[in-house]
């Protein structure tokens, strides 16, 4: 037993320390493809903030890296273990601590799953909007660390927009409480929003106070099918130009439609080049009018079919096609999911360029994503047993980011950088911003023990 | 002429450099009361980013402090000059550079006034929500540096919620471009939101890309008068509990109502203890229904009178009472405006405690503010020529913050810390957060030349 493990065993309860290699195996990886993962010395299953503090202090003293983990549902390798690290898992800190209906906030531990939190606040007539597709198996701590988005961002924004306050264990084991319980507040630097999205490199989130909204109305849903990608792109522009406030606006291309048809045995027309799905949660007649307007704009822009859901169940069915998309593409082969966001005005062009990449590299790319905010998930599908194809897949994955940047976009709209996109981050933000990243990292973690090498390569 | 001034004269065009003491006088202060202000060596009226860079480089080389200034409308002394500093005024960088209707963003220089920007984007059917009361004479750069709020925050949030990207001159004169032009993006640390609200202590904002919304509908307005403060407080709670989405919910107490009556010759009932003003911009019947519901809730909670505006002009008249409040209080004596935000559930209690403070210290406090988000501006009114009263006024000002903190609130909801509230900031955030502030400041400004001593005392 190494010294570090011995020290951990001295201060942690038995159930909070895992050193068995078989049990540790599942704590090595998140869900990112092709990211290296090391083997930890130990996994700490923290039950309380004091466990996190104790582990970080021991790590700091020993100069051992610490990798914080939530539900390991991330897609960029940010939670992957490093050789000889201490993994600090927050999955056992899974309690919703307080829900305040008048002040509209929830205080939660980081290990609570997004869906659990959402349902808990819904019982009080409240709404926590950020809704990553993985909401049933991703944790709030992970959402905070990657600044997750989701389907309803187009109307409600992303995780950082809901963060009021955080409790954070710093690199020296001290506890930082930052932020507030009030709607507004400008007392000092916005440390909470700095920690959000920092992927565990600046501190470990052990508690969060999150803003809530009143529950939205029952959504109205419609879908439109197009026989050409550009027609769908033009319809999206018209929808945005109209100013209609949608709570969801998603797109799937032909590859994705066909994959979903095969997987879910849905009856979507195989010849459709693109499908839009839109929702309005304005409620009552306003919601119906929003959806009718979107349907009209789709028809005016060449939709071959518009389906307006008669009731929430039918709406849910339409949405299921979108929700099943990634799993359906997974059935076709190994997938690498990109996460490029472009200015909305360039969306149609971006989709066209993804098609070009697929053709040029003779590889399958299913293009789907959040059309309403320009955040697309072109998903490269390939046969991993074919090295040449795997090579082309990697090229396609990179090429998608390259054209995203050329269109004024970003390499990651909501999945984060982790280890997967470190070199691309440098490309996107440039040397000055990279220096500022390093300066801030150095200021908050001078020994470089918190998730080292994530976001910014060492 | 000092060496520093000579160096500035060598690199800056003549019109960009002011050294005449009379002209420099007006660049010494913002609008904060009782904050010390020094005398600058020189005022740089930057016309372009390169001027800011040049001045910062000279300052860094000479170890001379730099104080960035917008429109000097701040209320915390953040823009006050320091002895021997270089003031860098951004007021001449006053151009709106681009408005993108589809992508819904505006690129602007920092010296543009909030109202000018708002009107410019309105011409494109777009809406920049943050609307500080000073919007006609405050600049976007100042709004960003203090993370300004305003009247419609209750529905639309504050400045930071609209910041997509920034150009920032760093302490060594390099230019940082951070953020994005896309709706979503998580590539690296959120440096933009760290700079926002940092009051010029981490960098000087020379350009901003701000998110816009589609123009809101014409607002519907109502006002309600109450014969007791607690009744008004209860009505506010019921309004919030109802989940109605208001674009404005303001409160004024009796002192403020009477001051407005005297100043504007309005016919508000002098015996009223409190007045609420509410707006909904939901549009059409939805807006009318919102306002009717608020009126009903006010009546159910003891309102003695409800005025529903028949048209926008009448609504504007009601709002004018609120807009005139601070000027009206100014007519009664010297004013010190507090800026405490409390959890909304504690608002009625907070207002009651402010009344207690006024009574106990035998001083006038006009309580007004943004009831919808719990951000109140209790305004101490006193006779500056009476030293004993001035002393009690200062005590009252501090006591208001103290009770705000006791109720789980913050010492500043939207005005910032500057020099006015530095000791209170330390009280609010505690030693660990203060250390993190210092570490970040040290990382980005190791020579401590950017607005030193603001936010965090040296």
Automatic annotation (TrEMBL), chains A, B:
Record GO terms (molecular function): FAD binding; oxidoreductase activity
Keyword check for Plastid: no
Cited SUPFAM superfamilies: FAD-binding/transporter-associated domain-like, FAD-linked oxidases, C-terminal domain
Cofactor: FAD
Domain of life: Bacteria
Keyword field: FAD, Flavoprotein, Oxidoreductase
PANTHER family: GLYCOLATE OXIDASE SUBUNIT GLCD
Name of this protein: FAD-binding protein
């Amino acid at each position: 037993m190494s010294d570090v493990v011995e020290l951990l065993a001295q201060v942690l309860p038995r159930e909070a320390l895992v050193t068995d290699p078989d049990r540790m195996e599942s704590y090595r990886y998140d869900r990112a493809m092709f990211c290296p993962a090391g083997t930890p010395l130990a996994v700490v299953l923290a039950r309380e903030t004091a466990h996190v503090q104790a582990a970080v202090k021991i790590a700091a003293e020993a100069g051992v890296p610490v990798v914080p983990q939530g539900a390991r549902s991330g897609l960029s390798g940010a939670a992957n273990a490093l050789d000889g690290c201490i993994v600090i898992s927050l999955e056992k800190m899974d309690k919703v601590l307080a829900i305040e209906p008048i002040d509209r906030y929830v205080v939660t531990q980081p290990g609570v799953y997004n869906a659990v939190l959402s349902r808990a606040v819904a019982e009080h007539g409240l709404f926590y909007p950020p809704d990553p597709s993985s909401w049933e198996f991703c944790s709030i701590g992970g959402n905070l660390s990657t600044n997750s988005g989701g389907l309803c961002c187009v109307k409600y924004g992303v995780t950082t927009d809901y963060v009021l306050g955080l409790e954070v264990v710093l690199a020296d084991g001290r506890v930082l409480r930052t932020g507030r319980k009030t709607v507004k507040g400008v007392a000092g630097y916005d440390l909470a929003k700095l920690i959000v999205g920092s992927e565990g490199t600046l501190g470990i989130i052990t508690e969060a106070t999150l803003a809530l909204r009143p529950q939205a109305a029952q959504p109205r849903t419609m879908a439109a099918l197009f026989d050409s990608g550009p027609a769908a792109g033009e319809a999206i522009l018209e929808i945005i130009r109209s100013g209609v406030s949608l709570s969801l606006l998603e797109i799937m291309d032909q590859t994705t439609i066909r994959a979903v048809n095969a997987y879910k045995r849905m009856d979507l027309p195989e010849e459709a080049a693109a499908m839009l799905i839109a929702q309005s949660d304005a409620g009552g007649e306003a919601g119906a009018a929003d959806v009718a307007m979107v349907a009209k704009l789709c028809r005016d822009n060449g939709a071959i079919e518009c389906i307006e859901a008669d009731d929430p169940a039918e709406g849910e069915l339409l949405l299921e096609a979108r929700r099943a998309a990634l799993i359906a593409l997974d059935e076709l082969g190994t997938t690498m999911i990109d996460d490029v966001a472009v200015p909305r005005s360039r969306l149609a062009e971006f989709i066209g360029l993804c098609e070009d990449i697929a053709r040029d590299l003779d590889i399958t790319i299913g293009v789907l994503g959040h059309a309403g905010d320009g955040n697309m998930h072109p998903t490269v599908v390939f046969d991993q047993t074919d090295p040449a194809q795997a090579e082309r897949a990697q090229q396609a994955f990179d090429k998608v980011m390259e054209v995203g940047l050329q269109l004024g976009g970003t390499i990651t709209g909501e999945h984060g950088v982790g280890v997967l996109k470190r070199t691309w981050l440098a490309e996107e933000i440039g040397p000055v911003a990279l220096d500022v990243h390093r300066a801030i990292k150095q200021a908050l973690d001078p020994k470089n023990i918190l998730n080292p090498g994530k976001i910014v390569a060492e």
